[in-house]
Design goal:
Length: 208
């Protein structure tokens, strides 16, 4: 299969990306951290294809991207006082992924089996517009499982086991992931250091 590649600055790019997701496709898209692979969470076959494309174990849950706090609340996330501090910081929207517990009664059907979720609001106009149209998406770094994420679309497509349906080409993208903070425990735990440093996280949490 030949993946269609569309420049991000093309007039049609946003509409093509939305159509790809709504039709059950897997989208390769630049983010404010690394290139990502994205699907709509309400389409199980698309989610399965994403796992296959990355050669990723199905037991590892995928992170979620939302456009704003309203979409986050609709996921049924338990947002603690500490988590609210981080959500109000200068790193959101941005390269900060937060882990929340879930209220199963308030969560959508596709989250009923999860005990926690990792969520990020990206600081990227294109992505925010896309998620504003489609609702939350499942998104993970565009690399073969266990490998680093390349900075260029062509290198990503060579590395992947299978091919996504559409690639949005944003040129060279930084290869530093978001910082991951688990807010489902108290005190919170920084599980991965990325763009946002430990010092910056601690500064926000100590600013009470």
């Amino acid at each position: 299969m030949i993946t269609e590649i569309t420049p991000r600055d093309a007039i049609s790019a946003l509409a093509e990306a939305e159509a790809c997701l709504r039709e059950g496709g897997v989208l390769l898209v630049p983010t404010d951290t690394v290139y990502g692979l994205a699907v709509l969470p309400t389409m199980p076959q698309s989610v399965a294809r994403l796992f296959a494309i990355k050669s990723r174990p199905g037991s590892v849950n995928l992170p979620i991207m939302v456009a704003d706090a309203e979409q986050l609340e609709a996921l049924g996330a338990h947002v603690s006082k500490t988590a609210r501090q981080l959500l109000k910081s200068e790193f959101v929207p941005g390269a900060l992924t937060l882990v929340f517990g879930i209220n199963a009664e308030a969560a959508p059907d596709w989250l009923k089996q999860r005990k926690e979720i990792a969520v990020r609001i990206p600081n990227d106009k294109f992505l925010l517009q896309l998620i504003g149209r489609t609702g939350p998406i499942l998104a993970t770094s565009a690399n073969r499982h266990g490998f680093d994420t390349p900075a260029q679309v062509d290198d990503i497509l060579v590395q992947l086991e299978l091919q996504p349906d559409l690639a949005i080409d944003g040129g060279s993208v930084d290869t530093v992931p978001s910082t991951l903070v688990n807010c489902n425990v108290e005190p919170v735990v920084i599980e991965r250091i990325g763009v946002v440093s430990q010092t910056e996280i601690e500064r926000v949490l100590n600013d009470r």
